[in-house]
């Protein structure tokens, strides 16, 4: 299990009520399961539309269960952005 930071942007930040929080998880799936437990409701709906960066690298279409998280890493939660 790794410990790191989840950063929320735009609508995800508003729904979470915070800009960031810690994670303790081995995979992106585990980290997001923890987020859903801590923030039921709107954030869970927003996450369905989000893309994710792990330490700056896009997750893309990879299964979240296969995306390993590193100690001290960062998960960026990016909802769709309008415009530019």
Automatic annotation (TrEMBL):
Q: What Pfam families does its record include? A: ThiS
Query: Gene3D superfamilies of this UniProt entry?
Result: 3.10.20.30
Supply the SUPFAM superfamilies for this chain: MoaD/ThiS
InterPro entries per the record? Beta-grasp_dom_sf, Mopterin_synth/thiamin_S_b, ThiS/MoaD-like
Span of the signal peptide: none
Task: Classify the source by domain of life.
Answer: Bacteria
The name on file for this protein is MoaD/ThiS family protein
